[in-house]
Amino acid sequence: MVIRNVYKVEVDSGVESVLLPFKTTVSLTEEVTVMWRNNSGMMVDCNYFKELQLRQYKGRTEMKENYKSRDFSLTLKNPTDRDRGIYTCTVYRKEKILAEKQVLLNVKADSPIIAIDFGSGYSGYAFNLKPREEGGETQLKRWGKEVGLDSPKTPTCILFDEDKQFLEFGYKAKTAYSNMTEEEAEKHYFFEDFKRNILFMEGHSVYMEITLLSLDIEFCIKESLEHFPDVLNMGLFIRRENQNVININKDADIE
């Protein structure tokens, strides 16, 4: 049986319930079986065989059983983005299909947004956990508490140990390096103001600078993701101070 039309339903995540409509013009009696299945073919609800209902739908569905009006619409409670997909309602008697309809459900998740400003001198980021909610507030990461400051940005600098492993970024990197003895400092790698130098370099130096750039961006991303431990879908927007396209080579050596 070929189904040409798919009815589309779209709701926001967090709503109390969503209705997946199904009505047919076919005359029906209580002898028919009406079954809703998800796009994996698993049973969501049915007028019989309740014991076969998929676990994730237990206690969350309510199907109309109005044989007179031929209405077998399904109410799904507390829909989430996990419930997205095509739902098929099939009416059959014995092995003969009498009517069938598909409904495409889209549950819009409130994906958070992170904005990273990576500058030549200073960098920072801001985030909004629920951008589509009224009153959803954008929060700005504050830096410099370890040095008695409260700044919306931190210096674009990075510190590595003698094995070229990442140690610190921003104020922490600058403070740690400044507090080192001359002997200790010689065993570490400290870089700052390197972003602005990329356009004037050639050869291997470019790869080194771009590697530092990528590591700094990676640090900001990882730092900001700590605010989203349970988020699966996220929009990430990176603003650069110039319009140059940079291909990041993370395997370049730091020398």
Which secondary-structure class do the elements indicate? alpha+beta
Strand content: 25-35%
Q: Could you name the CATH topology of the largest domain?
A: Nucleotidyltransferase, domain 5
Q: How can the largest sheet be summarized?
A: 5 strands, mixed
Give Rg in angstroms. 29 Å
Tell me the name of the CATH class of the largest domain. Answer: Alpha Beta
Number of domains: 2
CATH architecture descriptor of the largest domain? 2-Layer Sandwich
Beginning-to-end CA distance, first to last residue: 66 Å
Can you count the helices?
3
**SSE pattern, N- to C-terminal:** EEEEEEEEEEEEEEHHEHE
Low-confidence parts, pLDDT < 50 over ≥5 residues?
229-255
Percent of residues in helices? 10-25%
List the helices and strands and how they pair.
Blueprint: E1 6-12, E2 17-20, E3 33-37, E4 43-46, E5 61-63, E6 74-77, E7 85-93, E8 96-108, E9 113-118, E10 122-128, E11 139-140, E12 154-155, E13 157-160, E14 166-169, H1 171-178, H2 182-186, E15 189-192, H3 204-225, E16 235-240
Parallel strand pairs: 1-8, 9-16
Antiparallel strand pairs: 2-6, 3-4, 3-7, 5-6, 7-8, 9-10, 10-11, 10-12, 13-14, 13-15
